[in-house]
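input
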Amino acid sequence: MATPDGGGDGYAVVVRDLRKAYHGVAAVAGIDLRIEHGDIFALLGPNGAGKTTTVEILEGYRRRDAGEVLVLGFDPERERQPLRSRLDLPERSIPLPSLLLTTAQRL
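output
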């Protein structure tokens, strides 16, 4: 599989122009990065900077609005299962609203 920049040999993660918005507000506005195999990488920033959204997109838990992403040679949006088996990520589940009960409702 070709990487977004046409190369990518030696990179565990390649991201180009990653974008994600919620209700018209940009959470991630054009991130570009390359992370080599074996590197330790951190996303730092204030609340609302898009750190969690970016990681969720890289893990395949969230869809991007635009941009190109490869993690270990897989597109997390299109090749989620093969990527997840390589990363050994647990399934994330969101509780159904009917399961979210207040203390009074439980009694």
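quick obs: Residues 1-7 have pLDDT under 50 and may be disordered.
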